[in-house]
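Hello K.,

You asked for the raw outputs rather than the summary table, so here they are, unedited. I folded two proteins back to back in the same session to keep the settings identical. This is the first:
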Amino acid sequence: MNKVMLLGRLTKDVELRYSSSENSIAVAKYNLAVNRAYKKEGEPDADFINLIAFGKAAEFAKKYFRKGQQVCIVGRLQVRSYEDETTRRHFFTEVVVEEQHFAEGKKDKREEKANA
């Protein structure tokens, strides 16, 4: 079973592109800062997780998600690799989004704007 559930804040706005294939598909890439439960001295407080969404999920993320917003993501872990021109292999780990949910109420957003 390959299932990942994350709750965190977006580190930047969602980047949306469309595939260059005949049936152009929306592809969104974004990052989530997920707080660690325990922290050792000198280590970061959060992990920064790469997310990728396709199709309607990608368009939804671009339309409704903003930097700093708290969201809940359900997906699967994926590892990709490629070889550069020096034949060195590079690996990328990311979560492919299957579900995404708002984790803050509208009241929270109104309070943020009032405090800005």
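The second followed immediately with the same parameters:
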Amino acid sequence: MMKRPICITCGTQYEEMESNPSSCLICKEERQYVNPDGQEWTTLVEMQNKPFQNQVIEEQPGLYSITTAPTFAIGQTAYLVQSNGFNVLWDCISYLDEDTIQAINEIGGIDAIALSHPHYYSSQVEWAEVFNVPIYIHEDDTKWVMRESERMIFWHGESWELAPGLTIHRLGGHFQGGAVLHVKEGNEGQGLLLTGDIIQVVADQEWVSFMYSYPNLIPLPASKVKEMAHKVKLLKFARLYNAFHRVVKSNADQAVQRSAVRYLKALEGTLFQT
């Protein structure tokens, strides 16, 4: 019997096949990890027969968060961004059911899906087929697509305008094609940046950080962090959302710059003595 396996650790859905893969290519790479108890798989159908549900919450005008409960895999939040009549799903989650589809359609549906990086590809093709929309992925991350689709648009360069006022920017870092979404008129015209964990909001939500691998605590080199901070400095945004419901509520553009300075001082050995 054919099925589309979903890795329980990272939530990535694979191509249709008769048996589960021996391992998950996403998890075997040093930015992720293989569960110490061994590789495990499920399917979307199996998940739909368990007590999962998606919570769709209005975070602020024009922005809805979509999160699965109980937490599954990495546990990220996807966001539905509404701007000038265009609705984009930023990042994706593995679980999808009829209640979610109805809830999203009631608030205007989806016109496109855009991804920050491969850890959140999850069941993106399922979502794209249900809502009949394209998927935007930076071409540098093509090799991490585990389920292909003709709906995928592999954009290139340093930025891509999805619609007026909605632009994806490649920062790299966590992944070579790692991207953020800039909503020019979001946050009541003050600007909004959605970052996945290309830029990560830390426990003190007035600061952010940058990493090559979060679970394995591998930092990024100073040159890359400088480059990322410089690219973001050109954007206007007062608020920043990461993939885990953490928010820099005000002066987020300044928070990114001072966080980059602190990060660089730590790498260079001038922030502290130890």
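The chain has one domain: 6-46+53-268.

Happy to rerun anything if the numbers look odd on your end.

Regards,
P.
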